[in-house]
Amino acid sequence: MATHFRSTGKKCVVIGGSGFLGQHMVEKLLDKGYSVNVFDIQKRFDHDRVQFFLGDLCNKEALLPALQDVSVAFHCASPAPSSDNKELFYKVNFMGTKAVIEACKEAGVQKLVLTSSASVVFEGTDIKNGTEDLPYAKKPIDYYTETKILQEKEVLSANDPDNNFFTTAIRPHGIFGPRDPQLVPILIQAAKSGKMKFIIGDGKNLVDFTYVENVVHGHILAAEHLRKDSPVCGKAFHITNDEPIPFWAFMSRILTGLNYDAPKYYIPYWLAYYLALFLSLVLWLLSPLIIIKPTFTPMRVALAGTFHYYSCERAKRDMGYKPVVSLDGFYFYLIVLIILTSLHEH
């Protein structure tokens, strides 16, 4: 039975609010006048205007206190994509999301906005200006993406306007920004170890990278447009910077902005891919004797050497989305400076 329903729309919960995206979401929601709860498995920051609830999101009973009197739930909790823990991915991304949906319905939460991923349609081959009408990947690039597909399907199918429960999924791609624990730190580590000398392919493949503020903006817009008869209900939306950039140009700009050398030697895509495939086979054959986690994999080669950028036209049309931060010129170098400052602080 639904309880404690509030219709003001100004009280929300950020599930996964201690994470990279979650913290930025909390900050922007507070700026916009929302009352914010955070539900997470750990508390990574303090804020006198935020109420924290600690627990396992797979436990519906643990979730319920964080959802009382809440109108909007933002669900951005997930293990890091770089993890290789299949059991954890399935537990958190799929089973945990089922628990979130059940708890939202029981608590009378009206709106659920999921952080999905544009990679749910990516199979390692070129995607140019891909729309949300592309089918889900039949062969996802990794287990993280496989469980994100399951998660997104679960959330979108839960959309139930007749019972005042509205859902949507936001599909960002290549999120980066201050306090980023993945893209930039991994890039810096690779540069320090001498692994950023080669450009895979011809260096012209366009990719979407998305500044974290734009991702947050897309989530909040989606929540504000979720209502009966809205085209946002039960749909997925690509949210990017809407300015595809050559993958290796982006990497080079980040590296040079942080005083590292840009890659300058070219290796054909097919050669890199089959070398990575051969290495994966060798490591699989050796796995009964020794476990080695490779960093040079076919999936990473595909991500670095193919086109994969996505259309934001649906988000523009249905909820008025427009990126708030651009990658062009001065702004890009300002972003690099902000990232560098955040790395020193953390």
TrEMBL record:
Similarity field: Belongs to the 3-beta-HSD family.
UniProt keyword list: Acetylation, Cholesterol biosynthesis, Cholesterol metabolism, Endoplasmic reticulum, Lipid biosynthesis, Lipid droplet, Lipid metabolism, Membrane, NAD, Oxidoreductase, Steroid biosynthesis, Steroid metabolism, Sterol biosynthesis, Sterol metabolism, Transmembrane, Transmembrane helix
Highest rank taxon of the organism: Eukaryota
A Pfam family it matches: 3Beta_HSD
Record text on subunit structure and interactions: Homodimer.
InterPro entries per the UniProt record, alphabetical: 3Beta_OHSteriod_DH/Estase, Lipid_A_modif_metabolic_enz, NAD(P)-bd_dom_sf
Gene Ontology, cellular component aspect: endoplasmic reticulum; endoplasmic reticulum membrane; lipid droplet
Protein name: Sterol-4-alpha-carboxylate 3-dehydrogenase, decarboxylating
